[in-house]
Write a structure and sequence with these properties.
Layout lengths: L2 H6 L8 H13 L4 H9 L17 E3 L6 H17 L5 E11 L9 E7 L4 H4 L6 E7 L4 H11 L17 H9 L7 H7 L10 E7 L5 E7 L2 H22 L15 H32 L5 E6 L1 E5 L5 E5 L1 E3 L12 E3 L7 E6 L8 E3 L8 H11 L9 H12 L3 E4 L16 H10 L3 E14 L8 H6 L1
Parallel strand pairs: 1-2, 14-15
Antiparallel strand pairs: 2-3, 3-9, 4-6, 4-7, 5-6, 5-15, 8-9, 10-13, 11-12, 12-15
Helix pairs in contact: 2-3, 6-10, 8-9, 9-10
The structure holds ligand LQESDW3C and manganese (II) ion (MN).
The site of the ligand Nc1nc2c(ncn2[C@@H]2O[C@H](COP(=O)(O)O)[C@@H](O)[C@H]2O)c(=O)[nH]1 has 21 residues, from strand 5 and strand 15.
Length: 468
């Protein structure tokens, strides 16, 4: 039997013809009739596809206010991308947080975006699954000693810890990796290699004092590193296969894995394991610092801001750069969450207010003002850099202005000026908008002493040196 026979029988050509013909010819080779063979082929015919929703079908709750012309442009871009996104057939509602900024082509969920859907969209929790904040309180420890201790035990930069310096996640986490097909093949080994590492970009270890008690606190920010990134890749591939069959018009970035499938169940369970790995990844660093200081941790909690949560209405709430602010958002949730702003500002400890117009979320930070490259261009113009870019003197002047009074450290030994406070929106404005929209209540603050970030780890990379 050939493709033409299927077309003659009224079927429309597509990728599904290959397995359909294999099945039909298997029937014929076993002596079955042409009618039976055509029936066998028909079983592969894709069902009807889901069309995109109409333009204004879904409500978008906006909790963002532009404070200047530049922010107006940002808000328009965020609105445009959300308007395209909510045309995805299974999406039910969306919200925009005060720290929102675009994060990809139009139709991609912005940072500071919340989307409620009937299904799981890997693209909407982003590649850095479970990027999160964790805090531990170290009573009686002075901030400098704590920052020194963290500096000695942590790992920033690309890749994982070298062999011989690796640490293992708990047995429970390792066995959960082994049991899930999404988390085998390379994900498990990455889970060991990347354990107790923080990566690069704006991930940090921040030490400060609690406004309420004066006690010293350590706050870390990072995600699920390579294991999470690999799960994301696998999830996107599976989701895209469903998209091609169920809703080819849907934007690739918004492809979904239906919840009521084996793929959906396993992906959901893999997400929970990655969450467990990430929590351990924060606390192992806090514990190593405590051990180095022979200190005790009095209290700790954490929250993710890139994740998917399932609420009692059965829907999946995706937060990309959004902090859960509804009750019992996870089995280990406290009533407090952590919102950083920039290295020179206090980190906010908030109690979420489960606002309906925020779909039960609050912001996750101040949000970027500029992309990294735009920010560098702006600093170069402001500090009069020549065509070779910022000079060591320029960098020293920028650091002096932006980190004065702070113990600001860069793990690589070189500052990454694109991550300094001027890269982010006004902390005061974002704080005012959290209050204005009633998304959360600030109950305490961590006043900055200093922090460590990866810094510019490519500074002395061979390809950079060649260009200079
Ligand atoms: N306390 C600090 N906060 C910082 C720093 N760099 C960035 N930030 C804030 O974190 C959020 C979260 O970023 P994301 O990568 O998860 O989107 C960001 O919006 C900033 O407000 C820092 O060095 N210290
Ligand atoms: Mn983050």
């Amino acid at each position: 039997m050939s493709g033409q026979d299927l077309i003659d029988a009224g079927m429309s050509q597509g990728k599904w013809f290959r397995p359909a013909l294999d099945a039909a010819n298997a029937v014929l080779s076993k002596g079955g009739s042409v009618t039976d063979a055509l029936e066998a082929a028909k079983a592969f015919q894709p069902g009807p596809t889901l069309a995109l929703r109409a333009d204004n079908d879904i409500e978008i709750y906006s909790n963002i206010r532009a404070e200047n012309a530049f922010e107006q442009d940002n808000v328009e871009k965020v609105n445009a991308t959300m308007r395209a996104l909510v045309r995805t057939p299974v999406v039910r509602a969306a919200a925009i947080m005060p720290d929102a900024c675009p994060a990809g082509p139009v139709g991609t969920i912005p940072v500071g975006g919340v989307v409620a859907s009937e299904a799981i969209h890997p693209g909407m929790h982003s590649a850095d699954i479970c990027c999160s904040m964790a805090i531990s309180i170290f009573p009686g420890v002075d901030p400098k000693s704590l920052l020194d201790a963290v500096h000695a035990v942590t790992h920033f930069g690309p890749g994982g810890r070298p062999r011989g310096a690796q640490l293992k996640p708990s047995e429970a986490t390792l066995s959960a990796f082994e049991q899930n097909p999404y988390l085998r093949d390379g994900v498990l080994s990455a889970g060991i290699e990347h354990f107790a590492t923080q990566g690069d970009g704006n991930h940090f270890a921040y030490v400060g004092t609690m406004k309420s008690t004066g006690e010293t606190a350590l706050v870390t920010h990072h995600g699920s590193r390579a294991p999470g990134a690999r799960l994301y890749d696998k999830g996107m591939k599976v989701a895209n296969r469903f998209r091609e069959r169920i809703s080819p018009e849907t934007h690739r970035e918004n492809a979904w894995i239906p919840a009521d499938t084996e793929e959906g169940d396993l992906y959901w369970s893999a997400l929970q394991t990655i969450r467990q790995w990430t929590r351990e990844n924060h606390y192992v660093l806090h514990d190593m610092a405590a051990e180095k200081l022979s200190a005790k941790v009095a209290d700790r909690f954490w929250n993710e801001h890139n994740f998917v949560f399932r609420k009692s209405d059965g829907l999946f709430y995706h937060g990309k750069g959004a902090t859960p602010a509804f009750d019992n958002w996870a089995h280990d949730a406290t009533d407090l969450t952590i919102i950083p702003l920039n290295m020179a500002e206090p980190i906010l400890i908030v109690r979420g207010s489960n606002a309906a117009h925020g779909l039960g979320f609050s912001p996750h930070g101040a949000g970027r003002n500029f992309s990294r490259s735009a920010h560098l261009r702006q600093l170069s113009a402001e500090y009069g850099a020549d065509s070779r870019g910022l000079s060591p003197n320029n960098v020293a002047a920028i650091l002096e202005k932006e980190t004065s009074g702070l113990d600001a450290r860069f793990f690589s030994g070189f500052a990454d000026v694109s991550e300094l406070p001027s890269a982010y929106k006004s902390a005061a404005n974002v704080r005012a908008q959290i209050e204005h929209y009633g998304l959360a209540e600030v109950v305490d603050e961590v006043i900055p002493y200093g922090s460590i970030m990866a810094g510019d780890w490519q500074k002395n990379a061979p390809w950079r040196k060649k260009r200079q």
